[in-house]
């Protein structure tokens, strides 16, 4: 005998079952219930984006709990809200970004119970991506008592997910504050390829990460990931093979690369290059200050990125890295311990 479930059961199924990688389903469910409450059968994309943004903005302002489960990462919505709160993104720009990228996964995937995509396919709404979402009677016919009950369950589930996500993220608030500070003084990405000729000589004309010769294709890499530092200051830029850059990705480098970066920066300081002044302004006027300040940045970024760590290419060994044998490196680091 086929079993009969109510529309309310199906909606609970969507929200309560399945492994949620993030809290997006809860946010969308709340927006759908709100529209049903107002008996609104069409939601335009811009309204959807606006509601989504406002929901996360108030949620994160209130409690600031992680919205996804992988330690040291952020959801798109957390990044957007943080950029807005630090004054880097106006409200209308933030909403526009949400409309463009905030729904890529959740709108098409919402109508799934667990991993089953057929039971509730197009059961509650249809959508034209980027244009409108049309609610069906299955939502519009829910009684106000049912809507209230569902809303309560969604709120409880959202809180439960945040609690589960925060277990792996003991430094969440500290990491968030550090991101925020970097965000405030950060700026938009600049083209970096014009730095290649300048940087090459100071790092011994070899790849920073594997110490092999550079080929024709060269990547400019942020040693401490740009997603945290939010700037392209030269003290943090090195050249690498595209493959080495991809291997490293957004991970935290091992300590030996920080010591190498300090030595590389001293090579620039030892020259009369005009960018000397920029490095001095950012890191300090003496080698000791610069080393200490760079280590401070490394410690902060470590707090944000945690154990998302990259020790280097297998073949790399700092003890035989030709960089340390180059004349400029030897001269500039003579008085310092490496
Ligand atoms: Zn390399």
TrEMBL record:
Gene3D superfamilies of this UniProt entry?
1.10.30.50
Ranges of residues in domain HNH nuclease: 213-252
Name of the protein:
HNH endonuclease
> One MF term from GO for this chain?
endonuclease activity
**The organism sits in which domain of life?**
Bacteria
Q: Does the keyword Nuclease apply?
A: yes
Pfam families xrefs = HNH_4
Q: InterPro entries, alphabetically?
A: HNH_nuc
Keyword annotations for this protein, in alphabetical order, are:
Endonuclease, Hydrolase, Nuclease
């Amino acid at each position: 005998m086929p079993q009969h479930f109510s529309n309310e059961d199906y909606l609970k199924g969507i929200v309560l079952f399945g492994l949620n990688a993030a809290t997006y389903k809860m946010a969308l469910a709340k927006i759908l219930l709100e529209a049903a409450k107002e008996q609104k059968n069409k939601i335009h994309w811009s309204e959807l984006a606006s509601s989504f943004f406002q929901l996360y903005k108030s949620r994160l302002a209130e409690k600031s709990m992680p919205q996804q489960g992988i330690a040291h990462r952020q959801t798109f919505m957390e990044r957007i809200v943080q950029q807005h709160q630090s004054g880097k993104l106006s409200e209308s720009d933030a909403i526009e970004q949400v409309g463009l990228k905030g729904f890529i996964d959740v709108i098409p995937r919402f109508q799934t119970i667990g991993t089953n995509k057929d039971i509730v396919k197009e059961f509650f709404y249809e959508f034209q991506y980027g244009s409108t979402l049309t609610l069906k009677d299955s939502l519009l016919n829910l009684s106000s008592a049912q809507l209230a009950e569902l809303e309560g369950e969604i709120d409880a589930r959202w809180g439960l997910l945040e609690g589960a996500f925060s277990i792996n993220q003991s430094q969440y608030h500290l990491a968030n504050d550090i991101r925020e500070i970097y965000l405030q003084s950060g700026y938009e990405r600049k083209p970096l390829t014009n730095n290649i000729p300048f940087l090459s000589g100071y790092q011994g004309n070899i790849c920073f990460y594997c110490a092999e010769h550079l080929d024709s294709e060269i990547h400019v890499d942020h040693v401490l990931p740009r997603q945290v530092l939010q700037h392209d200051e030269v003290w943090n830029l090195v050249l690498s093979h595209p493959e080495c850059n991809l291997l490293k990705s957004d991970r935290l480098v091992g300590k030996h690369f920080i010591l190498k970066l300090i030595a590389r920066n001293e090579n620039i300081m030892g020259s009369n290059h005009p960018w000397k002044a920029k490095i001095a302004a950012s890191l300090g006027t003496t080698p000791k200050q610069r080393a200490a300040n760079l280590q401070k940045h490394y410690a902060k970024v470590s707090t944000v990125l945690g154990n998302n760590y990259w020790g280097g290419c297998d073949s790399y060994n700092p003890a035989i890295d030709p960089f340390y044998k180059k004349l400029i490196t030897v001269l500039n680091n003579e008085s310092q311990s490496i």
